[in-house]
Amino acid sequence: MTFQNGDGTTSPGRIDLYRRGCFVLEAKQGSNATAEKSLFGGAKLKRGSALRGTPGWDDSMLRARNQAEAYAKALPVAEGWPPFLLVVDVGYSIEVFADFSLTGKAYVPFPDAKTHRIFLRDLEHDLSRERLAKIWTDPLSLDPTLISARVTREVAGRLAELAKDLEKQFEANRVAGFLMRCIFTSFAEDIHLLPKDSWTKLLGGLKGKSKKFVPMVESLWNAMDIGGYYTGMAPTGSDFPAPNSFKAVDDVTKDFGDATERLLGSTLGYIKNGVYAVSGVS
Question: pLDDT tens, 209-265?
Fold first, then answer.
């Protein structure tokens, strides 16, 4: 490949590994603290670019990441920007960076800063192998926005099926109110109006126990109306249902999705602004 230098000159370069529309890979060779011997015995292996587990190694991997980005930038325009950069310390780790905008402006650790580094031992796990396989064969399928949209569609589809099943026994407005309460309770758990995982664990514990579902969930929702202690949760400090979590908000005559429904409006407001507030609730 050819680099276009700032002074108008060009210089040649070679990418360690490149797959069009998928990734640019830059490989380095680090070394361990103890001297390593060849797999076939004999002379010790040559020291790598840096000693693993040291600041020098971190710096070396960062330079390799920047080098991989420079290679991606130097690709012909017709090639486009690859969604992934891979930085490999041969025989030790693979660091993954992604930019699903395909603009080359924001390669960030993928899936996040804590788990973007895949060590050799991690390849024992299916998730690590599947992630690398998709980077090679179908990288855009890992785009979190596409995954979120797909999950949202799947959840909406399942809720619709559940609603149809419930409407065989109950009036549509009662079903809508029930499902709205369930959704809001999940939302309340997410923003810590309820103790962490309390609603999730309650539902999990009631699986296959339909006779206990109504009284236990009813007890929780009553506690959410007035605040206070709920026996279905292990109290931790002040982790109780917040007072008025439902009061003056729950209008079962409206479908969840009605733009005038205060519960929906407050939920959307939290998603947009990070602030949860419901008018008319003290």
Answer: 778 888 888 888 887 777 666 655 544 444 445 544 544 444 544 554 455 555 555
Structure tokens at 173: 């407005």
- The closest alpha carbon to 95, from 30, 38, 14, 3, belongs to 30
- Asked if residue 166 lies in contact with residue 178, where contact means CB atoms within 8 angstroms, the answer is yes
CA 62 to the chain's CA centroid: 24
- The CA distance from 62 to 50, in Å, is 12
CB-CB neighbours of 167 under 10 Å: 14
Return d(Cα 190, Cα 234) in angstroms, integer.
17
H or E element in which residue 268 lies:
helix 262-273
CA pseudo-torsion sign 166, 178, 170, 172: negative
pTM given for the model: 0.56
- Whole-angstrom distance, CA of residue 161 vs CA of residue 101: 35
Nearest in space to 222 (alpha carbons), one of 247, 197, 249: 247
